[in-house]
Amino acid sequence: MHITLVKKRLESGEPCRKCAEVEALLEARGVRGLISRVVWADVSEPDSEGWALARRHGVETAPFFIVETPDAPPQVITSALRFIKLAEAARAGSSGGALGAARGAASHEAKSSNEAGGSDAAVGVSGDSASLPAPPTSAAGGAGEAPAPPGLLVSEVEAAAAELAQRAPQHIVRWALTRFGAGLKLAFSGAEDVALLHMAVEAGLPFRCFCLDTGRLHPETHRFIDTVRKHYGVTIELLSPTPGPVEALVRQKGLFSFYDDGHKECCGVRKLEPLRRGLADAACWMTGQRRDQSPTRSEVSVLEVDLGFRGAGPTLFKVNPLANWTLKQVWGYLRAEGVPTNELHERGYVSIGCEPCTRPPRPGEHERAGRWWWEAETQRECGLHVSTRG
Predict the structure, then answer these.
(1) Do residues 54 and 175 share a domain?
(2) CATH number of the domain that 219 lies in?
(3) Is residue 141 situated within a structural domain?
(4) N or C: which end of the chain has fewer CB within 10 A?
(5) Does 228 reside within a domain?
(6) Predicted confidence band at 136 (pLDDT cuts at 50, 70, 90)?
(7) Residue 283, Cβ neighbours under 10 Å: how many?
(8) Is residue 337 in some structural domain?
(9) Which residues are the active-site residues?
């Protein structure tokens, strides 16, 4: 089996960020040695071998893998995670088994691409061109820069949301990554919303990821964040609260004032303030909200304008790809895809937040009943998600 890795080289001579992240992931998973050769799609050389291979195979993302075996046509894989599954199978088994894995991975990828297609024009999807732009021409003005992602107008939200509501979460994730590019930030809570991070990595498009480190998370959640970083080879930015307001609150009211005064004040300094900072350079953010999580989230839309925070532009958008999935569907996906999960789930925790404010729900309770359980059910939101409905 011969495997070619095609990477994009920027004008600076450095590999693109995604290519560097994939290289690190291959090394971490111990499969980098299975790569037979590396070729480059050089943004300053339209005739470079990498561009030629991209054109030949109709590929618009970078990096990508070409798997060749003597008794089958070349198979192209654009997902690093699917390639790793193939490579691990090849390392553990025979070449015949590896070829079967390659065919399976390619077939699964084609199926996913078809699912993400359909009526994309209705919601303005432009494919993966933001990840690997068309090669530059030698004519004047051919700068070779990736085109800016198309973004979204407020007037388009209602129609786009109606269209996306009929689609699978994987499609919604790819749509958002294509629409907003690196302007999209994925909010990772350290719980079952790791499904979104998995989908984003599978899409092979640029994104940024952050987690609110309130200073009161479970140790298990911190270990899980490290596990996810290593497993996917991604950067997860930890957004911590500004020390001054936290110190003032603790000095005045102690560490557990929320049991007497409610959680809003503590969440304000430990969650809302760092989130405002984190979203200041974003065009859109992605969350794991679902309608079945609690009564306060029963009308969550897959796409909405965020009225509670400001981003880099005049409008901040929010996309909730899991809105229409149930908890059972999320866990079915996590198990089927072999996604790592927080060990707290094995102890009965469902929704996971700060350690003092989270307990496992009791039988018959909804999954967020274990959050701020001493408060009225209508008050069990921290303020991160402002409803767009009356």
Answers:
(1) no
(2) 3.40.50.620
(3) no
(4) C
(5) yes
(6) very low
(7) 21
(8) yes
(9) 382
Task: Please give the mean pLDDT across all residues of the chain.
Answer: 80
What values do phi and psi take at 313, rounded to 5?
-115, -170
Give me the phi and psi of 76, to 5 degrees please.
-105, 130
Same domain, 36 and 160: no
Does residue 193 share a domain with residue 109? no
Phi then psi dihedrals of residue 160, to 5 deg: -65, -40
- Residue 161 and residue 41 share a domain: no
Residues 166 and 105 in one domain: no
Query: For residue 306, what are the domain limits?
Result: 154-379
Q: Are residues 173 and 255 in the same domain?
A: yes
211-246: per-residue pLDDT in tens? 999 998 999 999 999 999 999 989 999 999 999 988
* Adjacent-strand bridge partners of 211: 238
122 vs 220, more confident: 220
- Which secondary-structure segment (H or E) carries 239? strand 236-239
| Among candidate residues 66, 71, 59, 61, the one with its CA nearest the CA of residue 83 | 66
Which helix (H) or strand (E) segment holds residue 286: the answer is strand 284-286
Question: Residue 298: which of 262, 326, 317, 271 has the closest Cα?
Answer: 326
| φ, ψ (nearest 5 deg) of residue 351 | -85, 130
191-215 mean pLDDT: 92
Task: Specify whether the CB–CB gap between 362 and 369 falls below 8 A.
Answer: yes
For the chain, what is the total number of helices (H) and then of strands (E)? Answer: 14, 10
Report, as an integer, the average pLDDT of 171-190.
Answer: 94
Please report the pLDDT score of residue 99 as a whole number.
Answer: 39
Nearest to 65 by CA among 111, 114, 28, 98: 98
Distance CA(62)–CA(22), nearest Å, equals 10
Residue 14 one-letter amino acid = E
Place of tokens 């307990």: 359
Helix (H) or strand (E) holding 74: strand 72-77
| Lowest-confidence pick of 37-41, 146-150, 202-206, 338-342 | 146-150
The mean per-residue pLDDT over the stretch 314-331 comes to: 94
Which CATH number fits the domain that encloses residue 105?
A: 3.40.30
| Per-residue buried b or exposed e for 56-69, using 16+ beta carbons within 10 Å of the residue's own CB | eeebbbbbbbbbeb
**Cα 224 from Cα 249, distance rounded (Å):** 28
**Domain final position from 115, 140, 173:** 115
User: What is the number of structural domains in the chain?
Assistant: 2
